[in-house]
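Hi everyone,

Forwarding the result from last night's run.
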Amino acid sequence: MLLYGQLGRDRAVMFDLAEKLEFTATSEDGRVLTALAHAMRNESARGEYITALGEDGKQVDISFATQNWRKAVLDKTRPGRFVRKHFEAMVFTHLAEELRTGDVAVVGSEEYADWSEQLLEWEDIQEKLADYLVEVGLCEEGEAGAFDAASSRRQLEDKLRGAAAAAEAGYPDNEGLVVDPETGIPSLKPHRSQGQRPSAKRLEQEAKARMPERTLMGIVARTAYWVEWWRRFGPPRATTRS
């Protein structure tokens, strides 16, 4: 009962945040936000199931979710319905992931701002482009003015041809590379470890020297402070039988 009560409070917090924050998609893919809007419209719904149809009368698109999530959300015995709890958990899980990757932004936020609004204007890019191309080695000094998509493609093709020619020239002496004579498919032989290099051993020793030892109880105490996992536990409720 304690766990279910905590889950109920967590659900209320998530919906409260969703109502107070303004989300926006940073690309043309707004499926998660559409699903979030559907979950919020059915927040006060009672029962185990909610309708799978959106305001337009069509089923809400949940193709953004994994197959396991879709199996949990859809009940074959109840077509046109979503399993409410699973649907809400799926929506908030993917919303958190899209906030992390920047596919969804929070209006007015700094940490979760729309990354596309932080890009330089094209006029500013043109002013810095020549120096950048020279610095990263894509062109020589004075050649940046003629550097465009076609020249970039030619440059990449030349590098690929050079790499292919070098690989072909070194193939007879390369004992790790094998080309199947029938299919022409290249493959690498399993690499046998030569053991730790002295530099790796020194790095390991230095890391251990700087890493303080922690007791098991100390680790438990620290994680309890950080994530408050202790809130999930409690004494079993006493029951009486007549």
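The beta strands are 23-25, 49-51, 81-83, 104-106, 177-179, 186-188.

Cheers,
N.
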